[in-house]
Design brief:
135 residues, 3 helices, globular
């Protein structure tokens, strides 16, 4: 009797592990897709200029800047209008700058690609205007 209970528990544990592994694999693929639309590369090596334009873009979009760390390359802000928090990281990669934005509303991550596309479109316009001295 004890042996059959142990075997039953073993089968349940294996089934639980199989389900967990599949969920982890699905989650990994989803994370890669999310990272893809949260990240943009810009053809410049001026990290400070990109960070200044990110701050300006976030303010234009209604964010109050809470923290800027130029050494690490992060900018964090909060929008009271739509209760959204956004953190943007900036890092150099060769002759370009990689920018990754991560936004959440409350405790829920924003996974809608359009929100990130809108941010990156506004940032691209800001960088273009700054590069061409149209301010």
């Amino acid at each position: 009797m004890k042996k059959s209970i142990l075997i039953g528990l073993g089968v349940l544990m294996l089934a639980a592990c199989a389900t967990t592994n599949q969920t982890a694999l699905d989650s990994k693929a989803s994370q890669v897709a999310t990272r893809n639309y949260q990240t943009r590369s810009f053809d410049t090596n001026d990290k400070l200029n990109v960070m200044n334009n990110i701050v300006a873009t976030m303010q234009d979009l209604g964010f109050v800047i809470e923290k800027v760390d130029k050494d690490i390359g992060t900018i964090s802000g909060f929008s009271f209008t739509n209760q959204t928090t956004m953190t943007v990281s900036v890092r150099s990669k060769g002759n370009s700058i990689l920018v990754r934005a991560n936004a959440s509303k409350g405790t829920k991550a924003i996974t809608e690609p359009l929100a990130y596309q809108n941010f990156f479109n506004a940032l691209s316009q800001s960088l273009f205007l700054t590069a061409n001295e149209v301010l």
